[in-house]
Amino acid sequence: MMKEQKGITLVALVITIIVLLILAGVTIAALSGQNGILTNASKAQKNTAMSEAKEAFTMAVNTILTNKAAGTTPSDLTLANIKSEMTKNYGNIKSVKVDNIATPTYLVVDVNGTNVKVTFTKPASGDEYTAWTATGTAIANDTEVSAAKDIS
Q1: How far apart are CA 87 and CA 56, in angstroms?
Q2: How much of the chain is helix, strand and coil, in % rounded to 5?
Q3: Directed axis angle between helix 37-70 and helix 79-89, to 10°?
Q4: Residue 99 near residue 108, CB atoms below 8 Å
């Protein structure tokens, strides 16, 4: 009389291992790659930083112009005042630097460790109450970050 054997067969073990390998491959492909979760999360972080920096710049300029028009605060529209408003009202902004103090064209803004470039257009001379516009944003490259000067 044969004793009844219990356990897993070799075929079942091989099938289980194959299924686990397929699942691991699908998971790795979903995480990495050009359209992977990690890549998309990184893009979303950069887009959020760009939007926040652009919004902070626009709000700072408009706040200064509104306060000046209302006569509530005697602040002029200077880079130092823009920097002050941006860092005061947005806790995620760690620093604001400019490409050129004399003729600025863009700011390099550190938003929680992500450096963002905010390009802006200043209104024509004598037309200070025309809203300044942030014309475009892009991630600042290393050269732009290192060349940016602190606003005092």
Answers
A1: 8
A2: 50, 20, 35
A3: 120
A4: yes
Nearest to 52 by CA among 98, 116, 99: 116
The upper half-sphere exposure of residue 34, i.e. CA atoms within 13 Å in the direction of its Cβ, equals 0
Give the number of residues written for the chain. Answer: 152
Residues 6+ apart with CB under 8 A from 114: 45, 46, 49, 139
Rg of the Cα trace of the chain?
27
Task: Report the sign of the C-alpha dihedral through residues 53, 59, 61, 67, in that order.
Answer: negative
pLDDT digits (tens, 9 = 90+) for 29-79: 888 888 889 889 888 888 888 888 888 888 888 888 888 878 777 677 778
Angle formed by the axes of helices 10-31 and 37-70, nearest 10° = 30
Q: Read off the pTM.
A: 0.71
Neighbours of 1 (CB within 10 A): 3
Structure tokens of 74?
């005697």
Q: pLDDT, tens digit, for every residue of 66-91?
A: 888 787 776 777 788 888 888 887 87
Distance CA 77, CA 107 (A): 15
| DSSP tag of 135 | E
